[in-house]
Specification:
alpha/beta, Aspartate Aminotransferase, domain 1, Aspartate Aminotransferase, domain 2, 2 domains, three-stranded antiparallel beta sheet, 12 helices, 14 strands
């Protein structure tokens, strides 16, 4: 395989030290060596998430952590609110429906952000909703949602705020504790610059009380099992040890400077990406664009699938395209490696 530039929303390019870490011999997951490594990773994740809440590590894709955030918080038959704005935010609804949860869907057109005041009215109308599920950065449209504003708007309610930060955490501003996010979900392979296969959840004390309040339809994704291992720290099941080792290197790079510097760098790169795309006739999809990745319409008459394939075969640039309701779309992700 020839060398190429990976500019997809995920996975992102690995820092060299993380790549080298994957070549090391596997260590035993019940050893003191691994426990020390896991402790460093969990502290690093707390730093990136900007939280002192518990952070749990799962050997799964980000979707696994999303499922865990649903089945551990909302009992079957109870109500959840889902803010749907694209291909990936709709996944919250599909997971909830699969577990017999009553879903109140609030949908906006693709490319549009949610207005906090409208979300507040929805939460007030459905005051019996256990949780509200939303997205920090919608990968399919490049929209950045105002999570800080939404959190402030619903702060007086009993509804838990759950945020999918899979494609955004590490690249865009996200202050879990300061904003009042109850559960934040993330994946390793995007802004955290790790290899695919790990997912994480930060869980607030208020969210833990809800988890403890009912019998959860979960075994592998039972979050109480993961919480019991935090004192070790340990994991209830075999973790993906090589991926944890590689992620540790990426987190060390992220922790070497304040998070504000990472956010500012991605902000500048995102603005440059949008300006460059507009210069060649590509209109951004998002009205409130995200800094972690960029989505734009291809010019009329350009075949999206052929364009993506041509970029790779001729220039070695790997970007992503999505079909669904917006066919002609190009995705680009600012380079996150240092």
């Amino acid at each position: 395989m020839h060398d190429f530039r990976l500019l997809t929303p995920g996975p992102t390019k690995l820092p060299e030290q993380s790549r080298l870490a994957l070549a090391r011999q596997v260590i035993h997951h019940r050893s003191e060596e691994f426990r020390q490594l896991l402790a460093e990773v969990l502290e690093g994740l707390k730093y990136v998430f900007q939280t002192r809440n518990d952070v749990l590590l799962l050997a799964s894709s980000g979707t696994g952590a999303m499922e865990a955030a649903v089945v551990n918080l909302v009992p079957p038959g109870r109500k959840a609110i889902v803010l749907e704005s694209g291909k990936f935010s709709e996944r919250w609804r599909k997971i909830a429906e699969a577990f017999g949860i009553e879903v109140v869907k609030y949908e906006v057109p693709w490319g549009e952000p949610f207005e906090p005041a409208e979300v507040a009215r929805l939460v007030e109308k459905h005051s019996d909703a256990v949780a509200l599920y939303t997205t920090l950065q919608e990968t399919s449209t490049g929209v950045a949602h105002d999570i800080e504003g939404i959190a402030r708007a619903i702060a007086g309610s009993n509804t838990l705020l759950v945020v999918d930060g899979i494609s955004g955490v590490g690249a865009v501003e996200c202050r879990t504790d300061a904003w009042g996010i109850d559960v934040l979900v993330a994946g390793a392979q995007k802004g955290l610059m790790g290899p695919p296969g790990l997912a994480f959840l930060s869980v607030s004390p208020r969210a833990w009380r809800q988890v403890e309040s009912f019998s959860r339809p979960a075994f592998y994704f039972d979050l109480l099992a993961y919480r019991r291992g935090l004192a070790g720290p340990d994991t209830p099941f075999t973790p993906a040890t090589p991926l944890v080792v590689a992620l540790c290197e990426s987190l060390r790079a992220l922790r070497s400077v304040p998070m504000e510097e990472h956010w500012a760098r991605c902000r500048a790169l995102g603005a440059a990406a949008r300006a460059g795309l507009q210069t060649v006739g590509m209109k951004p999809v998002a009205r409130r664009p995200a800094d972690g990745m960029t989505a734009a319409y291809l010019p009329a008459g350009v075949d999206g699938k052929a364009f993506v394939a041509r970029l790779y075969s001729r220039f070695g640039v790997r970007v992503s395209g999505v079909k669904d309701s917006l066919r002609a779309r190009l995705f680009g992700l600012p380079i996150l490696g240092r």
